[in-house]
Amino acid sequence: MRILHTADWHLGRLFHGTHLTNDQSHLLDQFIDLLADQKPDVIVLSGDVYDRAYPPVEAVELLDETLARIAIDHNIPMLIIAGNHDNPSRLEFGSRLMTDRGIYLFGRLTSCDTPIVLQDADGPVTFYLAPYCEPAEVRAHLQDDAAVCFDSAMRSLVGRHQVNGRSVLLSHSFVHGGSVSDSERPLSIGGADTVSADHFLPFSYVALGHLHQPQSFNGGRVRYSGSLMKYSFNEAAQRKSVSIVEIDAAGEIQTEEFQLTPRRDMRVIRGTLEELLQRPDDYGPRDDYLMATLLDEGAVYDAMGRLRDVYPNLMHLERAAQLEGDGEIRRASDIVGKSDLDLFNDFMQAMTSSEMTPEQTEVFVEVAEEIRREEREGTS
Amino acid sequence: MRILHTADWHLGRLFHGTHLTNDQSHLLDQFIDLLADQKPDVIVLSGDVYDRAYPPVEAVELLDETLARIAIDHNIPMLIIAGNHDNPSRLEFGSRLMTDRGIYLFGRLTSCDTPIVLQDADGPVTFYLAPYCEPAEVRAHLQDDAAVCFDSAMRSLVGRHQVNGRSVLLSHSFVHGGSVSDSERPLSIGGADTVSADHFLPFSYVALGHLHQPQSFNGGRVRYSGSLMKYSFNEAAQRKSVSIVEIDAAGEIQTEEFQLTPRRDMRVIRGTLEELLQRPDDYGPRDDYLMATLLDEGAVYDAMGRLRDVYPNLMHLERAAQLEGDGEIRRASDIVGKSDLDLFNDFMQAMTSSEMTPEQTEVFVEVAEEIRREEREGTS
Fold this sequence. Notes:
Strand order of the largest sheet of chain A: 6-5-4-1-15-16
Low-confidence stretches of chain A: 323-329
Strand content of chain A: 15-25%
Largest sheet of chain A: 6 strands, mixed
Structural class of chain A: alpha/beta
CATH class of the largest domain in chain A: Alpha Beta
Helix content of chain A: 25-40%
CATH architecture of the largest domain in chain A: 4-Layer Sandwich
Oligomer: homodimer
CATH superfamily of the largest domain in chain A: Metallo-dependent phosphatases
Radius of gyration of chain A: 22 Å
Shape of chain A: globular
CATH topology of the largest domain in chain A: Purple Acid Phosphatase, chain A, domain 2
Number of strands of chain A: 21
Largest interface: A-B, 25 and 25 residues
Number of helices of chain A: 10
């Protein structure tokens, strides 16, 4: 069975205030072309279909159009699970009315008790569904008090099934040891949010979503396909792709990656203002989404405005070294990759000259968790 | 052909801060029961499925569940058009994937060029679709400059079809001379928003939505089924229903109304505070949604709090006559039924002692129109 694995489309995403719908549409056109070329038997999309609980109209239209092309024009079944950016109930709307057409949408854990079985010439392949959900939801639905964190919740979710024969798990989770990018929203603030790859041993293949960089574990049997496109500048060097996974009669797998070509690449350029202005041809296509790191030491005047005349999609500008008031050198790398908790702690330290107390940390985590939940439920 | 006509469900509506989902769900259960009893060949829902562009999760779940019961459990086709409260693109999501199951969702005008033809023993019945849309959209889509107002837009929309044989039009519009309720959102601020019933002469039956009171025109061939339930206290005396319309082989119609029983009725009670507190049994079921008109002349203390001990769902309280600062008697009836423009004009007059100038009126209409559009597009 040939499985086309993709994840983290994030339709409706804003990037530095710019809607990426045209970029996403451009990539999904190629995705559709790939179907004709590669003739997969099934498509799996492992969560974060949309970027937010209330996606903009353009994102809804793009998904609607894409699903229609997949199901009606190409007649290929597709399994979709919700990620932490999707609202589970909204994503599931109409799902029971679309299964005849081969589109399977799984948002709520309560919809995922029964796996989906697809057949090929070698017999059945069973697809298990694990959309993103909080440990508390797993605890409530399975009535299993052991599901206290993401890791134990995954053990409970997987453990309830007798996994035999050729099997695939779709999961939107953070595997321990995985490489993060800047564009993933943390699953938990200040708590453990990873799961062990050991839980995934029973499956022929585990199609993961959440981490935006393509990467694999357990000898390739556990895999993040990576996001549809780059969603932050620290992904500039990544090569985004979708994966075709071939499962043979014995349940052995072979994987091939297919790169889609973005409408505009996302890149970082470095140089002095003069270099960037005078020799733009040295820096690749001018209308890519760019971040410029300026190497100038002294003052520069209206760098953004002048650079944008040359690079119309320059999104962000930073100085390699920026002198702070107290003379301390502060670099962007001091911020990138830090958790919200760490950043807030830094801020508190700068303001009060002392570390946050455990009580303060607890209050911060509580408030941040609440905001995170509200974002997903779309109540804010 | 037996057509079950309903409209204006307004799923997700808030009533004085209270979610009506349980009430709507209670009525839709009866609606489903009616399908088994009356065995309609098709259901038509003439707009305002949801109450707003971004409906709450509970409303999405209720519609999802209801459509699944209609299509899967009862296997009855259903045609749905968008009303002025629905977002056209969001409502249409997945529509092409649901038609195999007999669910037809029409939001955007561009999706409505081709009518739907259903068959019964007497031959075909053609269903034309006219979801709510602004005259400007009609002008753009039909490239017809004559569509300058709602009335001329309807003439253009209907005029493009050669209507022959048995035919039904679904439309969400305001027929000239129709009786309004307090719970409809105006289609236009300060402009003409009605359409002539004459445009509807070519059809065997016109299934309308928008006005919440059941009512008919053209000898019953043009009909508002009315809303699913009462959505304002000025509808207290209305009898809400859904209609079964039987079209015979010759295109003649017979209509029967079916009343659904609300979980809680919406009623107005009148009396002095003492009467209402002492003799609640005289005023019907205590847990209905109630508005109380107090007949007391003098001061009363904490009327709302005391009445709520007896009538837990008392939503609103008013005094029959309320003395204003200047001694002028001001009644609620001075406000009810007035347009936003009239109310604002009253306010300006009270503040400035002069009528609004034409320029001021224009500014008000412009701003109010913008707010109205944003509400529908869900951008605010």
